[in-house]
């Protein structure tokens, strides 16, 4: 039956003007990200880069969201870990982790630097070339760069971890949000994360409620002690009378 249907389609295409056969070949279709008007939690992926000797030199676990500002509106695109191709290089004092989607339509690249016993990200670049936002809209690429920064600094053998969202301003039109972030470069024994270094956002979320609670408890204790002291002074005054 399938062969008969195929013959009929070829016959119609041959004799009837305007009837064309369309190949369903996904390999010939260019992948293009689609911007969405609403935000969604990005999927978490773990990316590993190895040196030429086969030793792990960069490991990163995170979800990544591209936030595009276009025509006074905000659009969103999440990096899909299942589509990401990892590349880069490993050096003694510098290393690069590049995350790329098919057809190079989307990229996110981290450049790590090692200075003595400290490592950090000195450069972060991002780019996304989505489908046009409307039928008559032209193709457009949104890109941005953070350079000469010291992001996510840790000592050798430690990993940077941040449960809070990290929002990075790449350009006037592009922001990158990293969620549930953990990464480590240069020293990765057996490919495992080392001691965790907590980000300031997580530290504040954890410590500030404790400080506020302690302050409230202290204020209550001072108030109670003051009331007891006043009550005791008054009772002493009555005894004298």
Features:
flat; 241 residues; five-stranded antiparallel sheet; single chain; seven-stranded mixed sheet; disordered N terminus; alpha+beta; 2 helices
Explain this structure to me?
- The chain is of the alpha+beta class and 241 residues long.
- 23% of the residues lie in helices and 41% in strands.
- Strands 1, 2, 3, 9, 10, 11 and 12 form a seven-stranded mixed beta sheet that branches. Strands 4-5-6-7-8 form a five-stranded antiparallel beta sheet, with no helix packed on it.
- A hairpin with a 2-residue loop joins β6 (106-115) and β7.
- The radius of gyration is 29 Å and the shape is flat.
- The protein starts with a helix and ends with a helix.
- Mean pLDDT is 82; it is low at 1-27.
List the helices and strands and how they pair.
Layout: H1 2-15, E1 45-50, E2 56-70, E3 73-78, E4 85-90, E5 94-100, E6 106-115, E7 118-128, E8 142-155, E9 158-162, E10 166-169, E11 174-185, E12 195-198, H2 200-240
Parallel strand pairs: 9-12
Antiparallel strand pairs: 1-2, 2-3, 2-11, 4-5, 5-6, 6-7, 7-8, 9-11, 10-11
The overall pLDDT average reads 82
Number of helices: 2
Largest sheet: 7 strands, mixed
Tell me which oligomeric state these chains represent: single chain
Compact description:
The chain contains two helices and twelve strands. The chain has 241 residues and is an alpha+beta fold.
């Amino acid at each position: 039956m399938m062969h008969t249907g195929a013959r009929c389609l070829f016959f119609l295409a041959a004799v009837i003007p305007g009837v064309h056969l369309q190949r369903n070949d996904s390999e010939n279709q260019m992948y293009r990200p689609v911007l969405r008007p609403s935000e969604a939690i990005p999927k978490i992926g773990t990316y590993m880069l190895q040196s030429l000797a086969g030793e792990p030199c960069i490991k990163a676990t995170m979800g990544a969201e591209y936030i595009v500002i276009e025509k006074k509106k905000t659009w969103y695109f999440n990096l899909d870990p299942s589509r990401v191709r990892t590349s880069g290089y490993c050096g003694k004092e510098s290393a690069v982790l590049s995350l790329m989607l098919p057809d190079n339509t989307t990229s996110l690249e981290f450049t790590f630097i090692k200075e003595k016993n400290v490592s950090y990200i000195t450069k972060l670049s991002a780019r996304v070339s989505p489908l046009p936002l409307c039928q008559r809209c032209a193709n457009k690429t949104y890109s941005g760069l953070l350079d000469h920064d010291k992001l996510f600094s840790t000592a050798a053998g430690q990993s940077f971890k941040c449960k809070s969202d990290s929002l990075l301003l790449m350009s006037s039109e592009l922001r990158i949000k990293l969620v549930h972030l953990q990464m480590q470069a240069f020293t990765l024994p057996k490919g495992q994360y080392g001691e965790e270094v907590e980000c300031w956002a997580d530290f504040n979320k954890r410590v500030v409620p404790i400080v506020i609670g302690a302050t409230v408890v202290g204020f209550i204790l001072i108030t109670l002690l003051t009331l007891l002291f006043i009550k005791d002074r008054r009772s002493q005054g009555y005894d004298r009378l």
